[in-house]
Design brief:
32% of the residues lie in helices and 21% in strands. By secondary structure, the chain is α/β, with parallel strands linked by helices.
Length: 238
């Protein structure tokens, strides 16, 4: 089921930190992709359904440079078929010795309307990718071509990325801190709760800046704190 526009908008308004807490409340502790960060934090939030690419260690006789002439090569095919609004998530086995993709492929994704790209490996041409108008997340720059280390094999299958299980269609959210993966069936309710949590955290931050103690306020164990939050929401229209 496609991600509802209202859910997409809600997820764009919240942080990965808040989403991690909402997922933790549901018993999900391992949804934040490890050791992956944005190439260029731009203040925008990446949101889209996962479209996956799985790699295995490259075997030299199967990965000469000529494999890129094959229009069905999984890496090229994934770039051309990743749906607009989706996020291409690459399982590079946490190995950044060689690139998962470079600037030309990421530019193609951008032009096709893809919402972002994530790898637990690295990108080549990383300065150029950082300048593009598409969110991109990786572990670190990696200049060597992917063929030296990675053999792309499967498209849109369950993968692991930075120790997180990613199923096709899961909802991928990225901000300045990193990337979290929300199971598809939880996306609507997690997004709604995260918006509520964000409103409360904004209220708490304002009160702490005014000099108020966090005791009884965060979490709100005092009746006065709950009443103050209700009044604050009414005043702010949130």
């Amino acid at each position: 089921m496609p991600l509802a526009p209202a859910t997409r908008d809600r997820l764009r308004s919240v942080s990965t930190a808040t989403l991690c807490t909402a997922l933790f409340k549901r018993g999900l502790r391992n949804q934040f992709i490890q050791d992956v960060r944005p190439l260029s934090p731009k203040g925008e939030v990446m949101v889209g359904e996962a479209y996956t690419l799985r790699t295995i260690p490259a075997r030299e006789d199967l990965n000469p440079i000529t494999v890129f002439q094959d229009r069905a090569h999984p890496q090229r095919k994934a770039v051309e078929e990743c749906p607009p609004g989706a996020v291409l998530v690459i399982d590079s086995r946490k190995d950044a010795r060689a690139a998962s993709a470079g600037s030309i492929l990421v530019t193609r994704l951008m032009v096709r309307g893809v919402a972002g790209i994530v790898t637990d490996g690295g990108f080549r041409d990383s300065p150029e990718i950082a300048a593009l108008a598409i969110p991109a997340y990786h572990h670190r720059p990696a200049a060597p071509t992917n063929l030296t280390v990675h053999q792309p094999l499967d498209i849109n299958v369950p993968i692991g990325c930075g120790d997180v299980p990613v199923w096709p269609g899961d909802v991928v959210v990225g901000d300045g801190e990193g990337v979290v993966v929300i199971p598809a069936h939880l996306a609507d309710e997690v997004a709604a709760e995260a918006v509520e949590m964000t409103a409360f955290e904004d209220f708490v931050t304002e009160k702490v800046l005014e000099g108020r103690s966090i005791l009884g306020l965060y979490p709100p164990t005092d009746e006065q704190a709950r009443a103050d939050f209700a009044a604050w929401r009414a005043e702010k229209g949130r």
